[in-house]
Amino acid sequence: MYKLGYRNNNCIGCVKGGAGYWNKIRVDFPEVFKQRCKQSRAIGARLVRDSNGNRIFLDELSPDAGKYPDEPDFQCGFMCEIISKENNL
């Protein structure tokens, strides 16, 4: 992940990411991006914000939205660790 320019090695397609992060995932891991789009729709989770600050679904995200290098860094928390252990990730 670091060689691809990511600042951390969180789960690929972490729900904590911003628009730029998700567009980087869209390019680097298109199948993961498509799966997360389906999952976010299925559970009704609007994971990112549009240019007006409104929450949107991933499949509504403009491919040129966000600037990953300018977005705040995010870290895994204890819940991420618990979920990873429960799912053998």
What does this structure look like?
With 89 residues, this protein is mainly alpha-helical. It has one domain (19-86). It is built from three helices and two strands, in the order H-H-E-E-H. The chain has helices spanning 19-28, 30-43, 78-86, and strands spanning 48-49, 55-56. It has a two-stranded antiparallel sheet with strand order 1-2. Strand 1 and strand 2 (55-56) form a beta hairpin. Helix 1 (19-28) crosses helix 2 (30-43). The chain is globular and about 35 Å long. The model has no long low-confidence stretch (mean pLDDT 86).
Pick out its properties:
globular; 2 strands; mainly alpha; 3 helices; two-stranded antiparallel sheet; 89 residues
Write a concise synopsis of the structure shown.
This protein is mainly alpha-helical and 89 residues long. The protein has helices at residues 19-28, 30-43, 78-86, and strands at 48-49, 55-56. The chain is 37% helix and 4% strand.
Oligomer: single chain
Shape summary: globular
The major sheet is characterized as:
2 strands, antiparallel
Parts with pLDDT < 50 across at least 5 consecutive residues: none
Task: State the helical fraction.
Answer: 25-40%
| Total number of beta strands | 2
> What is the count of helical runs?
3
Report strand %.
Answer: under 5%
Q: How do the helices and strands follow one another from N- to C-terminus?
A: HHEEH
Mean pLDDT: 86
Radius of gyration, Cα only, in angstroms?
13 Å
Count structural domains.
Answer: 1
What distance separates the N and C termini?
A: 16 Å
Structural class: mainly alpha
Strand order across the largest sheet: 1-2
